[in-house]
Amino acid sequence: MVQKIVAITSVWALMVAGAMAQGEPVPVGEANGRGQVPAFEGQTRATQPDNLLKTKSTVIAQGLPHLWAMEFLPDGRMLVTAKEGAMHIVAPDGTVSAPIAGVPEVDARGQGGLLDVALAYDFETSGRIFFSFAEPRSDGNGTSVASAVLVADDKGGAVLEDVNVIFRQTPSYDGDKHYGSRIVPTADGSLYVTVGERSDRPMRPQAQELASGLGKVFKIDGEGKAAADNPLLGVEGALPEIWSFGHRNAQAATLDGEGRLWVVEHGARGGDELNLPEAGLNYGWPDVAYGVEYSGQAIGQGVTADAETQQPVYYWDPVIAPSGMAYYEGNEFPELDGAFLVGGLVGKAVVVLHMDGDRVKHEERIPVGARVRDVKVGPDGAIYAVTEGGGSTIVRISQGD
């Protein structure tokens, strides 16, 4: 049954006079990692730009189930995933399709469920999509990636055909946290896949182990095999699908204008990181990190830098709790050309990172008033945010007066 969601327009005064001073960092309070010193100037708390964005927000659809991800179809409709295990298609007027048949069973406990969705690069001819989910297994669960063909029906919806699980994170674990995960297709048909290290202390050291699939960025082909340019191909004892390691829980990822992968991963209390993962490199977790444990104790030995691990391009303390990420290219906000947009769960905002080469020049926030689970740039150049909290809403952010 097709459900009709009435679109409601709401214009917010997003930048209250004096609340966010130009030329100063976003006011976020005291850092949790007291005494921790950034490795270089501008690695954290970058200043806001001289001219802050003026925006207006329009609710496209509301009363949706708890969504996790959104992807634009070529015709402007939105394919969304719901955490409990359903996919829907949302039309620009807010009409929501019936659940799409063919989604496999998911483990929706805790942070699990049906997670990311992405279109294959040849989607317009193949109809193929990829999606990730917390897969229930006989020995626990884990993040898995499936491919399917999205076949339209005559009611504005679709069904999934030719569904195949092409990749499984191992080892399995009977937990309910830190699954990742984002899927980022590339022009050559390969996929970057981010996965978490499952959070619990007995498991998280495996983010440093090349024989384990926890806490990694993978690069695979469309069939789930290791990509041909992966750095660990032929290395004894290492998983060949690994692209980079030492990650905590990356729920934000996108390509930049040069086709390079960028990710933002969750820290603990402090230490959310923006990284540009390079082949075969170690990004530190859990041995090297900013911030502190949720208990307030040091993470490991309290080390924030060493010669064996890569520094984040940028970090947040306190955290934004990142989820969802997009690289801005479009006409609606010419001043954002080349910027990154990151969803903030705790921040309840779209976090805008203005770049200067591979460094953050400025940071600003577009308040949304709810936890932002995903963010995309629409075909019209507007910013679309998926929010959560007692259900989900899709919000269109455009230029304000």
How would you portray this structure in words?
The protein has 401 residues and is mainly beta. It has one helix at 123-126; strands at residues 3-4, 8-10, 55-64, 67-72, 78-82, 86-90, 95-96, 114-119, 128-137, 140-152, 158-168, 183-185, 191-194, 216-220, 242-245, 250-255, 261-265, 272-275, 314-316, 322-327, 340-344, 349-356, 359-367, 371-377, 383-388, 392-399. The strands form seven sheets. It has a five-stranded antiparallel sheet, with no helix packed on it. The longest helix has 4 residues, at 123-126. It is globular and about 60 Å long. The two termini are 39 Å apart.
Can you give me a brief rundown of this structure?
The chain is mainly beta and 401 residues long. Helices cover 1% and strands 39% of the residues.
- Classified by CATH, the class is Mainly Beta
- The mean pLDDT is 94
Separation, N- and C-terminal Cα atoms? 39 Å
- How large is the share of residues in beta strands? 35-45%
Helix content: under 10%
Order of the strands making up the biggest sheet? 2-3-26-25-24
Structural class: mainly beta
Tally of contiguous helical segments: 1
Runs in which pLDDT lies below 50 for 5 or more consecutive residues are: 1-18
